[in-house]
Amino acid sequence: MNAGLKQLFNIANKETRTIIGLMSGTSLDGLDIALCEFTGHGTQTRMKLREFATMPYDAAFKLEVKAIFSKRRVDLEKVCLMNAYIGTFHANLINECLQKWNVNPSEVDIIASHGQTIYHAPASLHGIDGMPDATLQIGDGDHIAVKTGIVTLSDFRQKHIAAGGEGAPLAVYGDYLLFSKKDQNRIMLNIGGIANFTFLPGDLNTSRIFSTDVGPGNTLMDAYVQSKFPDKYFDADSEIALKGTYNTKLVSALLNHPFFDQDFPKTTGPELFNLAYLEQAQKSTDTTQLSPEDVMATLNRFSAIGICDALSKNLEGEQFEIFLSGGGMYNPLLIRNIKELTNNVTIRDTAELGVSPDAKEAVLFATLANESLVGELIDFGPGQTRVPSVHMGKISLPT
Ligand SMILES: Nc1ncnc2c1ncn2[C@@H]1O[C@H](COP(=O)(O)OP(=O)(O)OP(=O)(O)O)[C@@H](O)[C@H]1O
Ligand SMILES: CC(=O)N[C@H]1[C@@H]2OC[C@@H](O2)[C@@H](O)[C@@H]1O[C@H](C)C(=O)O
């Protein structure tokens, strides 16, 4: 028998598994690395976060990724090179972390790698007849496995699409297993580049559970800041937006897109919500002369309304609590806007549930890997074709 397969078999039979989850999101701020310990699976999953780090990307690396990121036309050679380069780069960052944490690679059973999304194209966005939902993450798992010596699962999203989903949000699986609570309706709201939430009903009825993207979180604000303030990467502590006032006409124009009327679950990305989208909305409302501060206040309000409209659409008349994660939770004006728009709903963050909000998405991929190794398929019910019952992740053996 192939020794690697035997190793995999042994890992699946272990009482406790040590799994590294990796996430590199649309904000391109860095690689999130979560070292987790798992016992059990399914609703019996117990996860302990041993270590966590975000390994920041330097400006040169960000530029390399941006050259092929969420663009309809790119240099195909560059895509090919970056697929291998990102795999190796991520492996080096993992090795660096393990050394820093004094963890021998042989202690780690599995790496669960999301890769770098470079294009996300749900059918509702590309609109090309006969073409499927599609998404592309690069940073090949074989490079990670060989360079770290650790069995790697990667490319989680393709199976989801093959089985009827849009490839995202995958958060639904991890949120259900780690955060469901009897008798409490929970909204797990992640405000990354794109904002998404998972609804976890207190009656634990799996057929009501879903995750959906709701629109931009930080992506438009980040892109605008970077275009107007070349020395800044994002609007730290809402410093810029707090100096401005939102423009209601522009907010309405930004919200005027069929994406916001689509049913849940749905997904999106910077392929839609980008500077061209903003420019068009500004032109149509004659607001091209707004100050950068007013534009930032407007974009901030726009993200908040997108999030809150989606919540109220789903939860009319129901009591719920929000648990936040993702970098947008550190944007004070965004949180203030959300509180105002939800009439001060209770907002906590996932740290109260034992998972650092910065680590949550990396932990998700570790959880998906744990399920793929030892879990049984979770059945979300017959109506839930967009939350398919599948195990995700492709296996890369180090040798
Ligand atoms: N102090 C802060 N003030 C304002 N915004 C902040 C602050 N800290 C982080 N952010 C925002 O959070 C972003 C990073 O968020 P995060 O790491 O969750 O994104 P991501 O994982 O790349 O996104 P996605 O989940 O869409 O893939 C930054 O680009 C910035 O917009
Ligand atoms: C295609 C893709 O990379 N989507 C990401 C992105 O970042 C947030 C949002 O858009 C979400 O749909 C998804 O990631 C999380 C981890 C998810 O799948 O749940």
UniProtKB/TrEMBL annotation:
Family listed: Belongs to the anhydro-N-acetylmuramic acid kinase family.
Protein name stated in the entry: Anhydro-N-acetylmuramic acid kinase
Entry keyword set: ATP-binding, Carbohydrate metabolism, Kinase, Nucleotide-binding, Transferase
UniProt cross-references to InterPro entries, sorted A to Z: Anhydro_N_Ac-Mur_kinase, ATPase_NBD
Organism: Pontibacter aydingkolensis
Known pathway: Cell wall biogenesis; peptidoglycan recycling; Amino-sugar metabolism; 1,6-anhydro-N-acetylmuramate degradation
Residues engaged in binding ATP: G25, T26, S27, L28, D29, G30, L31, D32
Secretion signal span: none
SUPFAM superfamilies for the chain: Actin-like ATPase domain
Transmembrane segments: none
Pfam name, any one: AnmK
Catalytic activity: 1,6-anhydro-N-acetyl-beta-muramate + ATP + H2O = N-acetyl-D-muramate 6-phosphate + ADP + H(+)
Function: Catalyzes the specific phosphorylation of 1,6-anhydro-N-acetylmuramic acid (anhMurNAc) with the simultaneous cleavage of the 1,6-anhydro ring, generating MurNAc-6-P. Is required for the utilization of anhMurNAc either imported from the medium or derived from its own cell wall murein, and thus plays a role in cell wall recycling.
EC number, as in UniProt: 2.7.1.170
GO MF terms held by the record: kinase activity
